[in-house]
Amino acid sequence: MLAESSPMPRPRAAAETETPDPGRADRRPGAPQIFVHSCNADPLAVRDALAAAVARFVDQLSREEAGTLELVLAEVMNNIVEHSYGERHEGTITLSIVRDRRGLSCSVSDDGVPLPPICLDEPRLPSTDVAREHLPEGGFGWFLIRDMTRDLGYHRENGRNLLAFRLPLAAPAG
Amino acid sequence: MNLTAEARDGALLVRVGESRIDAAVAIRFKEMMRDILKEPAPRVVLDLSRVEFLDSSGLGALVAVMKAMGDGRRLELMGLTPNVEKVFRLTRMDSVFVIHPDLPGKELRHVG
């Protein structure tokens, strides 16, 4: 993990390499601002990844924001487990999160099948105004992802999927 | 997956003793609920007060359980924690389930 390059909490005085503008610099002492985690594409490994990601940023998030982060990452990563790697039953997911002044900038990559373009269309909820036996049991995941994120983008290169998005946060960093 | 069921006031009260209903346990949850629902009861009340995390797989499992109950029986939910309530609200599934705001449902408790 990248964050292991600074294992000890940094004192404020050690922040001399950061941007010199004191009004904009993140002066939060010791808080790692980059989180990188790779895991196997299975639901229990995804659980561990979610817990690690939330633990890393929880002291900078409201309870609601922490819940949103966990839910968005769960939807994205479980989609990869079920669909991108669905046929193979194995693979690796790499999650990166960067904390910046506007919130959390996240990217998730995998080596599975391409993401169907329909997933990136405008989010549409499955209709709930139907008889009970026709109620939807799926189709909520991408709606939730699109609803809770900003600047969602997808790129595929060299057989690798990269999905990037932002989670805006209320409070500025630092 | 820890689920416990007891009869209360003509309803079957099912407590979910898990902090998560997610992709890792959604299928198991559905299977266990189907076993529990073999018990005849016109009303089934699912106590979700210990569940802190529900994802779209868990939501789909709840819908599947309700569909499997048939038209003559009701699946009601109680004790939604904030993160769980948010999933129901964002997906509009709060209009599909009967959701009791109080924890636990008073009408179930005072008889028991």
TrEMBL record, chain A:
* Entry annotated with the keyword Transferase: yes
Q: Which InterPro entries does the annotation name?
A: Anti-sigma-factor_SerPK, HATPase_C_sf, HATPase_dom
CDD domains from the xrefs? Answer: HATPase_RsbW-like
Pfam families in the record: HATPase_c_2
Question: Where is the region Disordered?
Answer: 1-31
Report the GO molecular function annotations: protein serine/threonine kinase activity
- Please, which domain of life does this record's source organism belong to? Bacteria
The alphabetical list of record keywords is: Kinase, Serine/threonine-protein kinase, Transferase
List the protein's name. Serine/threonine-protein kinase RsbW
Organism equals Phaeovulum vinaykumarii
UniProtKB/TrEMBL annotation, chain B:
Q: Which residues form the STAS domain?
A: 21-112
Q: Which PROSITE patterns match?
A: STAS (PS50801)
List, alphabetically, the InterPro entries matched: Anti-sigma_ant (IPR003658), STAS_dom (IPR002645), STAS_dom_sf (IPR036513)
Q: Which GO terms describe its molecular function?
A: anti-sigma factor antagonist activity
Sections of the chain in a coiled coil: none
Please give the superkingdom of this protein's source: Bacteria
**Extent of the signal sequence:** none
Please give the Pfam families that the UniProt record associates with this protein.
STAS
Instruction: Tell me which Gene3D superfamilies the record gives.
Output: STAS domain
Which family is annotated? Belongs to the anti-sigma-factor antagonist family.
User: NCBIfam families from the xrefs?
Assistant: ant_ant_sig (TIGR00377)
Name of this protein: Anti-sigma factor antagonist
Species of provenance: Phaeovulum vinaykumarii
- Upper classification of the organism: Bacteria, Pseudomonadati, Pseudomonadota, Alphaproteobacteria, Rhodobacterales
